[in-house]
Amino acid sequence: MSAIRYLIDPAVADIGFPVQRLLPAPVTQAVGPFVFLDHMGPARFAAVTTAGDVRPHPHIGLATVTYLFSGAMMHRDSLGSVQRIEPGAVNLMAAGRGIVHSERVPEDIRAGGVAVEGMQMWLALPKALEDMAPEFRHYPEQQLPQQEADGVWLHLLMGEAFGLRSPVHCYSGTLFAAVRLAAGAAWSLDAVAKERAVYVVSGGLTLDGTSVKAGQLAVLEPGVTVQLQAGEETRLMLLGGEPLDGPRYLHWNFVSSRREAIIAARDDWEQGRFPAVPGETEFIPLPPSARWR
């Protein structure tokens, strides 16, 4: 039996910068708490423009996780948080009952022609925390544990595994790591979480003999050790954790176990009842496709 339960190809979109979307997918809504997985960029943006900026928009019922490979982004939210994120760091924002945020490309990144590339993910909050007070946390690269041996470099971003423990707060059982394999390196991946997936960012590898190319997400069978072999230098992300405590509705920027909560959030955004991001007047209007009942 193959160790790969699903091999998912990305849906490609352009939302001001190129995006490869892996989750949700037709074959599965989630891997652990991860219900949304985007690989954004790489993209360069012209100076003295707003190209690539994500204007203020709302969320409920989820935690966003941002991790960059290159470039930088400036996060602002309705709590008053202002935080630049750079490669290797983690931004964690829990929307809970409601938050608004923007993400913009800093002017020095534009002027320098620096490519912006990274991962943006949504984690469904447990049902008991869907209505929690929103919060924002930032973790610099230096706070996140790393290890390197036999051509395998690992940066543990969330969770506890491989003899390491990340300080990043987890709202449920979560595993998230950035990994680089040298050309020809082999890595034996144990069942370090109940649900696991490997996303190949660049390069390519074989997983128990099956080829997995850049841009593909391999969702693994539970409870088995798998062998990864890199044919070239390869960057990948490992993600997963405890299964969700029930299905979720994902609609526009909202996640909830309750359909009525999404309808209420949509109406609150249309009626201007969400808090504003201090100092920002732009916003993303509710698209016609989000008028859902």
From TrEMBL:
InterPro entries: Pirin, Pirin_C_dom, Pirin_N_dom, RmlC-like_jellyroll, RmlC_Cupin_sf. Keywords: Iron, Metal-binding. The keyword Metal-binding applies. GO terms for molecular function: metal ion binding. Residues 178-274 form the Pirin C-terminal domain. Its cofactor is Fe cation. The keyword Magnesium does not apply. Residues 18-123 form the Pirin N-terminal domain. Fe cation binds at H57, H59, H101, E103. Binds 1 Fe cation per subunit. Belongs to the pirin family. This is Pirin.
